[in-house]
């Protein structure tokens, strides 16, 4: 066991999907574009809250439309929607 990477996840067995891509629906931006880039919202949790020695940065991945740059609102967790104006 290599203890240099204590946060590394153990290898996972490949997951079998019980649906095919044909069963899924498309996510489309209001501008009609279906291509998205992943970007990141960053928030800081004060060390007073976390009890750690330094403030903690929280990274939240979000998808933005490649064409118009709008955030894909339906993919945002409700908690995040309340924090940002999209
Ligand atoms: Zn768009």
Describe this structure in words.
The chain is mainly beta. The chain is 9% helix and 23% strand. The chain contains 2 helices and 2 strands; from the N terminus they run βαβα. It has helices spanning 47-50, 78-81; strands at residues 36-45, 56-65. It has a two-stranded antiparallel ribbon with strand order 1-2. Zinc ion is lined by residues 29, 31, 33, 65, 67-68, 70.
Mean pLDDT: 85
The whole-angstrom Rg is 18 Å
* Strand runs, count: 2
Report on the biggest sheet: 2 strands, antiparallel
Give the fraction of residues assigned to helices: under 10%
Search tags:
flat, 2 helices, about 90 residues, binds zinc ion, mainly beta, about 10% helix
Summarize the structure.
Helices cover 9% and strands 23% of the residues.
